Amino acid sequence: MGEFAKTRVLVKLLERDYVSRSEAKRLLLNLEKFAEIELDMRGVRQLGQGFADEVFRVFASKYPAIRLRVLNANANVAAIVRHAGGPKPT
């Protein structure tokens, strides 16, 4: 199986608020094939602790070679990302 270099995911496609682990799992489905994932948070108002933990701790631990980036996060979203151990949003 080949590895793709990079993808950008517009997180706001379906929801403006992401709360649950199951939402995070759906968002991350098949993204383990990429070396870098940019999560564009433009328009996302809020993230729940479960969602953030699933992305930035569970997924990141399972795939440590994948670089996660967070783009266009508002102050609330950026705080949750940092609290979950995610990368500093840009």
Give the key terms.
90 residues, alpha/beta, three-stranded parallel beta sheet, 3 helices, globular
Describe the structure.
There is one protein chain. The chain is an alpha/beta fold and about 90 residues long. The chain has one domain (about 5-85). It is about 35% helix and about 25% strand. It is built from 3 helices and 5 strands, in the order E-E-H-E-E-H-E-H. It has helices spanning about 20-30, 50-60, 75-85, and strands at about 5-10, 15-20, 35-40, 45, 65-70. The strands form 2 sheets. A 3-stranded parallel beta sheet has the order 1-3-5, with no helix packed on it. Helix 1 (about 20-30) packs across helix 2 (about 50-60). The longest helix has 14 residues, at about 50-60.
